[in-house]
Amino acid sequence: MTVVAPTLTLERRLLKDFDLIIALDEVGRGALAGPVAVGAAVIDAAGSRRRVLEGLRDSKLIAEKRRPEMAERASRWVPLSAVGWSSAAEIDQVGIMRALGLAASRAVQAVVDAGASLERTLVILDGNHDYVSRVHPAPLTVRTVVKGDRDCASVSAASVIAKVARDTHMAALHPEHPDYQWERNKGYASPEHRQAIREKGLSPLHRSSWAIADAPTLF
After folding, report:
1. Could you tell me which residues come within 8 angstroms of residue 75 by beta carbon, excluding any fewer than 6 positions away?
2. Is pLDDT above 50 for 102?
3. Which of 62, 63, 18, 60 is nearest to 42 (CA)?
4. Domain 9-172 belongs to what architecture?
5. What is the per-residue pLDDT for 3?
6. What is the mean pLDDT of the chain?
7. First and final CA of the chain: distance in angstroms?
């Protein structure tokens, strides 16, 4: 199967009307344990004229062993980047969609705190649902882009930055909860993870509001 590389075509067109783009993509939505994370990658008109990084793809299309290097390169390729988080406890408290909004809002705020302006700025959000506007305290102009992580290089950059950050976080939690093998499954519903839940029960980092024991395998 031929994998089409993402481009900056949409970003260049949109930057005729905006000064800045903040591209967002989430990881961890379907996991059984750990936080959800949203990556943010900022691009301006000058950046949109640069060559797209060789090998940049949606994080799911990059081999796991190559993702850390690509995430590091992606973070250098854009002027600003950040990752916003929402914990398993927050997911249980407010639901996954609002938790995604909280994580996205925190990612946006992080790049704003680092110097990005929201004036004449467009937020590109992967998918077809705007979950960030109603959560962020300041008004945002948001455009959802279906398959943005595949087609838009800025969103691909946000995707791999968030994926590596979350995978690293889950691997770091493994020594405290080794039965669940999070260093391998990153909190997703692998058969071994589900079996450990049946045998050991839930940890404090599982999304306890979910029907976890009978969850389907997600990867």
Report:
1. 81, 157, 161
2. yes
3. 18
4. 2-Layer Sandwich (3.30)
5. 67
6. 94
7. 19
Separation in Å, CA 154 to CA 18, 23, 84, 95, 105? 15, 6, 16, 27, 17
Q: Which residues are annotated as a binding site?
A: 25-26, 126
pLDDT at residue 36 above 70?
yes
At 187 the pLDDT is 97
Alpha helices in the chain (DSSP H): 9-14, 45-48, 67-77, 88-94, 96-113, 148-151, 153-173, 182-185, 191-200
Helix or strand or coil: residue 123? Answer: strand
Q: In this structure, what are the phi and psi dihedrals at residue 118, rounded to the nearest 5 degrees?
A: -95, -5
Tell whether pTM > 0.90.
yes
**137 phi-psi bin (left φ>0, alpha ψ -120 to 50, beta other):** alpha
Quick one: tokens of 154? 């800025």
Annotated binding site for a divalent metal cation: 25-26, 126
List the chain domain ranges: 9-172
Instruction: Convert the pLDDT of each residue in 117-126 to its tens digit.
Output: 999 999 999 9
